[in-house]
Amino acid sequence: MEDSAKERHPFRFLFKFLFFIGVLAAISKVVATQKKEFYGLTESEARAKFEAKLGPRIGEEKASEIADQVIPRLKDSGVIKPDPMEKVVNDAKEVASDAADDIKDAAGKATDKMQDAASKAGDSMKDAVGKIEEKLD
Rounded distance, CA 56 to CA 116, Å? Predict the structure, then answer.
């Protein structure tokens, strides 16, 4: 007589497999729903919403720490958009950097011109001294 405990039941395996797939599908649906709440929000709005949801459960400080980790990932994945002020600040930094580069270039050119002028003045002085010495002799 065969031991029924060791016997493999294909329907039991299929049932466990389908149950596992169902659990995974439910988890992914919950995650997608959670992400949908943040689509189109700015970074500051998403941070405020995230902290408001988690703050009462785990404390404001811990919620802020978790938001610091989650918000950049949502931003990188395109779920949330950057704050308009952040864009303005970044644009201003870029303009300031370009202006600083232009100023450095202009200062370098002015320094080169000053050196050339000083060199020419020195040469003119040498020529004048040479002419004076010739007239004195």
Answer: 71
